[in-house]
Amino acid sequence: MAILMNGKELAMKIRAGLKEEVEQLKQVNIFPKLAVIMVGNDKASEVYVRNKSKTCNEIGIAFEEFLLPEETKREELLNLIQTLNKRDDIHGILLQSPIPKHLDIREAFNAIDYRKDVDGFHPINVGKLAIGEEGFVSCTPAGVMRMLQEYGIEVQGKRAVVIGRSNIVGKPLAQLLLNANATVTVCHSKTQNIAEITKQADILVAALGKPKFVTADMVKKGATVIDVGINRTEEGKLVGDVDFTEVEPIASHITPVPGGVGPMTIAMLMQNVIKAAKELN
Ligand code: NAP
Predict the structure, then answer these.
(1) Ligand 1 in reach of 168 Cβ (< 6 A)
(2) Cβ(115) – ligand 1 distance below 6 Å
(3) Is the whole model's pTM more than 0.90, yes or no?
(4) Which end of the chain is more exposed for a tag (fewer CB within 10 A), N or C?
């Protein structure tokens, strides 16, 4: 039986530590604050933003929400970002995706001051990660690395395989694993014979968004299996990218969905806001 990597519990512990840190910062007149911009009314985004607001509240981070209508013009969004860039009371700026199709999300991410880019999406932060310099790291990959660390999973010298190469999960995670001295392979939708590759992994990360994609025949005995996927079944149940029932008996460590990587993402966001507040003061 694999050891269950309990992200929910770990995230709670991290949040408690961050709460204490915020209390200490307030003693020296640093009041961390996150601004969240949401354009249009995507239902899932509304839930994500609500969760972020609740977690900020719990930790003592101030939170300001900017809800822009679906028909927001490019200039209006960019102007708001510029205003928030200049505001001294705001340390983190997060643009909730998706945004309406007539707007260019890359242009908007690039407009955020990289020192307030708590999502780690700005090219300067992406570049810093690539050259191994300190910056803001995308929250989900940062959460995965923290889980590996907390569960004592050795990364150095290990074979890591990441399925998925998105800019927010797969690529930054592959970079972090490489920076931690793993030998990294990235698989994607054009990869051939994927099972042959994944079977070599000591650390296997599934971040593709396909329910039960990773099956027992794709996993080496004793591997650590990290499931980043969040998929909703027709019955409304949340499932990951890994067939948990099949894979769990083979793995040495495995993350559940829900309660695995998901809660770590938001904890890392909070950590990034506090880091920004300290660096900007
Ligand atoms: P994405 O942007 O859709 O990227 C998916 C990646 O998976 C792409 O690189 C794609 O390859 C690859 N892929 C798709 N089908 C594949 C296949 N059959 N075989 C191999 N690779 C395949 O998704 P994302 O934003 O990275 O998110 C991935 C999953 O993680 C989703 O389920 C999402 O909900 C979840 N997620 C969870 C958290 C969290 O907090 N736990 C955070 C973010 C995302 P190509 O590049 O070739 O198209």
Answers:
(1) yes
(2) no
(3) yes
(4) N
Tens-digit pLDDT profile for residues 172-189: 999 999 999 999 999 999
Q: Is 198:161 a contact under the CB 8 Å cutoff?
A: yes
- The 10s digit of each residue's pLDDT in 130-171 is 999 999 999 999 999 999 999 999 999 999 999 999 999 999
Q: What is the pLDDT of residues 37-81, one digit of tens each?
A: 999 999 999 999 999 999 999 999 999 999 999 999 999 999 999
Query: Measured from the CA of 165, which atom of ligand 1 is nearest?
Result: 9
164 lines ligand 1 (CB under 6 A): yes
Given 33, 116, 119, 212, which residue is catalytic?
A: 119
- d(C-alpha 233, C-alpha 241), whole Å: 12
Span 187-220, pLDDT tens digits:
999 999 999 999 999 999 999 999 999 999 999 9
Nearest CA to ligand 1 atom 40: 262
Is 189 touching ligand 1 by the criterion CB < 6 Å? yes
In angstroms, the CA 161 to CA 182 distance is 10
- In angstroms, rounded to a whole number, what is the distance separating the alpha carbons of residues 20 and 173? 28
> How far apart are the C-alpha atoms of 118 and 186, rounded to whole Å?
25
Q: Which of 274, 37, 277, 3 is nearest to 139 (CA)?
A: 274
How far from chain centre, in Å, is Cα 56? 16
Domains annotated for the chain, with CATH where assigned, are 29-120 (3.40.50.10860), 139-262 (3.40.50.720)
